[in-house]
Structure formats: structure tokens, C-alpha cells
Amino acid sequence: MDAIFIPQLTKAPERTEEVQVEEFLPGLETLTPVRGHVRVQHHGNYLEVSGQAETIITCTCNRCLQQYNRRLGLDTKEIIWLDETANQPNDLPLEREVVMEDLLESLPPDGYFYPNEWLYEQMCLAVPQRQLCDRNCPGIPATTVDSSDSPETPVDNRWASLQALKKQLPG
């Protein structure tokens, strides 16, 4: 996807440009290309960016550690402010309080908007934090480890080394 020169958007029909997407995004590991579209509309002092896309990713279950495939869909909209001081280095202290108004995306009005970077960021935000292969996933099956004090106690095999160390301690 090519970068969009922001001043050029003001000359586009309805001050809008729509980009069709059907490609693998660099840095985003997917099984299928990301398919969809990104729409950028210039509103004077801000850009309204919306996108719809989908792909298939491979996830690892947080409970049983098995890999599974999941459809990742996206239907989002964002306002990006056009600000002359955007992306300029600030001579600010390393530690400072940030007010809510500073937590907005902004671009210089004479700069570029990169649809592929925006779509990559949105897709990363759409990846679920809690990844489960199934709602009723039982997790890692427990196995038994021989122990002198409780031979039939089920223990997760990842703790076997710690259990062996425990046997070596006096008393």
C-alpha cells in the first residue's frame, strides 16, 4: 500500500481515498493475506480513518498451550488530528505528567498517512488478550510424580524438577 500525501486528499473526490487491501502485512504473522479496505477522509483539521479487514492467525491457548487458528476481524474508525507540531522532537523531561488531550493520534498536515502501518496497529489491537482454544478447555492434563509423602498426588509435569529438588532437601 502506498502512503497517502495528506494535502493531496483535499483535491480528491469528496476529500476521500479508499485503499483496497489484500496482502500480508509486515510484522503480522497470518495464515492468509489481510483482506479488506481502509478509507481516509480529510475534514480540514483532522482525518477520519475507517477500516474493515479480516485474516486468519495462529494462536496459542493460554490454558493447554495447543495452537489453533482463529479468524481475526476488524471494523473500526479513528480520528487523527492534523497538527503542525506532530512528530517533532520535544525537549521535554523524561518524566512528566500526561494529560488526556495528549493521548490523541496526530500527523502533520503536510505529511503522509501510511495505511499499512495504521492497519497493522489496528490488527494488533484486535488480537485477543485471552486466547482459549475452546471455552471449556481443561488446561494442561495433570500427571503423577512419584513422591515419598504422597504418591498419588497429581502434579503438573512442568513442576517435576522442583519436586525432585524438594526430595533432596532434609526434612
Q: Can you describe this structure?
A:
- This protein has 171 residues and is an alpha+beta fold.
- The chain has two domains: 4-88 and 98-126, no CATH class; 141-171, no CATH class.
- The protein is built from three helices and nine strands, in the order E-H-E-E-E-E-E-E-H-E-E-H.
- 10% of the residues are buried.
- The mean pLDDT is 86.
Largest sheet: 5 strands, mixed
Strand content: 25-35%
Task: Report the mean per-residue pLDDT as an integer.
Answer: 86
Helical percent range?
A: 10-25%
Query: Structural class per helix/strand content?
Result: alpha+beta
**Which parts are unreliable, with pLDDT below 50 for 5 consecutive residues or more?**
none
Q: What is the terminal-to-terminal distance?
A: 67 Å
Q: Which term fits the overall shape?
A: elongated
Overall number of strands: 9
**Major sheet: arrangement of strands:** 2-3-4-5-6
SSE succession: EHEEEEEEHEEH
Radius of gyration: 25 Å
Helix count equals 3
Tally of domains: 2
Task: Explain briefly what this protein structure is.
This protein is of the alpha+beta class. It has three helices and nine strands, in the order E-H-E-E-E-E-E-E-H-E-E-H. The protein has helices spanning 6-9, 115-126, 160-168, and strands at residues 4-5, 16-23, 34-42, 46-60, 67-82, 106-107, 112-113, 143-144, 154-155.
Considering the chains and any ligands shown, give keywords for the structure.
171 residues; alpha+beta; 2 domains; two-stranded antiparallel ribbon; 3 helices; 9 strands
